[in-house]
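Here is one chain, start to finish.
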Amino acid sequence: MDNIYEALRESHRTQRTLCRRLLRLKPDDSRAQETFNALRIELAAHAAAEERYLYAQILFDDMGLKSSRHALAEHHEIDECVEAMDAVRDQPEAWLEHARKLSHEVHHHLREEERKFFQLSGKILSDRQKASLASRYRRDLNRMREVVA
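Its structure:
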């Protein structure tokens, strides 16, 4: 049965792939900017849909309040890394440094989310909610990919 966690992991795989690809490319390679743009879109769309269809649900439960707030803060940190990278687009050394930091932040967040947050929220949500949230998340993710692009 499909659930919110499987839906989220699909985007997580995309994010990891784009981060790895970004770090393998030289900053002055045109594919690096294309990859960064794809990653920027995926991160922003995923964060918006995830915040609406997972974090918001968990914020209402006392047991999930602290974890949800922490995860939201990490999304904000990732947003700041993306903005910093965009600001140094014409500075290859700084850009690469920011790319490493962004990749580190993304990998850290995804690991923590999959190992801790999913387990905690899994205790809060019913199986029916998990299934319902999956389809709503996927719809919003696709919509937000277009909005962000």
